[in-house]
Amino acid sequence: MTNEEQIKEMVKQKYTEIALQDKETNSCSCCGSGGCSEEVYNIMSEEYDQLEGYNPDADLGLGCGLPTQFAKIKKGDTVIDLGSGAGNDCFVARAETSETGKVIGIDFTPAMIEKARINNEKRGYNNVEFRHGDIENMPVSSNSVDVVVSNCVLNLVPNKQAVFKEIYRVLKAGGHFSISDIVLTGNLPEKIQSAAEMYAGCVSGAIQKLEYLDYIKQACFQNVIIQKEKPIIVPDDILQNYLTKEEISEYKTNPTIIRSITVYGEKGNCSCGCC
User: Fold this and answer.
1) Does residue 272 lie in a domain region?
2) What distance in Å separates the CA atoms of residue 67 and residue 50, rounded to the nearest whole number?
3) For the residues 190-217, what does the mean pLDDT come to?
């Protein structure tokens, strides 16, 4: 088994566990990955409950932004959510595209797909579906999608370049994406980088912000902008699982190196030869 395969298997196992946990357990830890912080607040995600289409049953508290809020979804659009989890972003996107559009959620954890389908069946939406698959090789036809969204998922994927190429492939000309993700603006302590739990927790799998944006540009996306950015502050009672007191003090000299960004890009006319 290659290192990438090992990482994917670890993430799959962890998110199978998360699918069986309640939101309170997920939302007070680091993307649901670790023990519950005594500082009870959601480290990564933002509140969805004011958005049309929100359903608490589908909200596992695993996100790091609100990509659907920035995704410019229009009525009738076909939308893909990468790493759809229990379906929360899909249901919010469905409210935007309405019954005339279509929403496809893709996730490679069978337990998440099952949970999302149950949530969808409860609502009786016939234009929302959930497909089991790897977002590095999406089970979706080329040039068939108007909008791609994703919430705190690409940081979990070893080959981020492959994902952006796939996003480009499935989007129609003129289509666009809005993705919330975790990036870095400095170096993480080695103990955090090497911790499997912190990888599943969306932190140690994150790459440098400039590298992340460069991958998007290499995939030939145009009009790339950051729609929102905020620091992620990891509380001491999570840091102490990995770092000594001295290392925590050193880390806190630059505590905002972990950041959530929501980034937007458009598929152009293939003039750069990426098609």
Assistant:
1) no
2) 14
3) 81
**Residue 150 corresponds to which amino acid?**
S
**First-residue to last-residue Cα distance in the chain:** 31
274 within a domain of the structure (yes/no): no
CATH of the domain at 87: 3.40.50.150
C-alpha span between 269 and 187 (Å, rounded):
37
Strands laid side by side in the 78-82 sheet: 128-132, 102-107, 78-82, 145-151, 171-184, 258-267, 221-231
Burial 165-191 (b: 16+ CB within 10 A, else e): bbbbbbbeeebbbbbbbbbbeeebbeb
43-72 per-position pLDDT tens digit: 555 666 666 666 666 666 666 777 888 999
Radius of gyration, alpha carbons of the chain: 18
Q: Report yes or no on 212 lying in a domain.
A: yes
SS3 211: helix
Query: What six digits make up the tokens of 5?
Result: 């395969």
pTM across the whole model: 0.85
- Range of the structural domain that residue 137 is part of: 3-267
- Summarize pLDDT for 2-32 with one digit per residue, the tens: 677 777 777 778 777 777 666 555 554 444 4
- Total structural domains within the chain: 1
User: Given a cut of 80, is residue 227 above it in pLDDT?
Assistant: yes
Identify the residue whose tokens are 């990036």. 183
Q: pLDDT at position 41, please?
A: 34
Query: Which residue do the tokens 């994406």 mark?
Result: 177
Q: Is 147 within the bounds of a domain?
A: yes
Distances (CA, A) of 58 to 53, 93, 134, 213: 11, 13, 21, 30
Amino acid (one-letter) located at 74: K
CA 140, CA 133: separation in Å to the nearest integer?
10
